[in-house]
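Support request, please re-run this one:
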Amino acid sequence: MALLSFKPYFKKATWLLSALAAATVSSTAWSANLSDTQVERLTRDMKIMRTILDTSLAAQTNSRPRVESVYLARQGMLFTIETRGGFHFDFEHLSKPVVVPIAPKPPKAPVVTEIYFSEEKIEQIEEYAMQAAESAMEMAEVSLEFMSDVDWSSYSSAERSEQMAEQTQLRREKRELEREARKLERQVREIERMLRDSQFEQELENSESNEKLSEKLKAKLSGYTESLSEVAEKLQVNATKLQERAKKVKEEQEKKQKQRLLETEILISETVCDFGSGLRSLPDNEHISFQIEGRVNKLYVFDKENITACGQGDITAKKLLESSTKYSM
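Re-run finished. Output below.
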């Protein structure tokens, strides 16, 4: 009985061994389809293409790109392009417009037209001040985040230095906004205290002499409210400037990305057109594919038939690029 309990496991082990043996035979049979001579020719042709791409990309990007290649049986050659210290594509955002979140504008400052203020009135003034500060700080923070997200590797040394100085200035202005916000908070607390004190004094004294004091206090409160409005407006103006500046930098970077991608696509198609038909080791029914690495990889697949047609002058490099299969992943 004990032996019977091992029977299912024995059958399973036998099946696994049989499958492994079959896979080994299949692999051996498949590897026999590519002779050493074929492998050598494929390796040589891919090395030639890598050298051409290395030279062309280095001249285009002013950097040291890395081009790797691999042959996939029954599919063709795959060249992977990765720039070093050069341009890093962000394909995910190239098709999207630059949208900077707009912080909500604070409500209009309440006008002081009365000497007695309710709790609701005091809260309204305080809420106005806090919204103004938060709105401005949110806009400043978004601007700095935009700047930090920018890939500066494609810029020249002078441009990078200029942008570093720009970021330093942005941070300095952000700190100034924070100081203004703290000042605004202190003013709000002072207004709140004065409002409450004025109400208390008016409740205790209702004499005629107190009317002049009330008028003075009313004027002072009006001045505080006006000052509060001016500070909030200044915060908004400064934050808006930061926002517009960051948006401009982001748009310039994405414009550079699109232009560099277009140049790289043209370079690849021209290289394939000029030299692809010379890759005699590649079977006629296979392809030459390119993968440009980025946050999202972009792939281009060229048919050998179209490559040959371009090499013979039947179609242009532009038409070759248009006829390729393009996708991102």
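The longest strand covers residues 66-72. Residues 98-254 form one domain.
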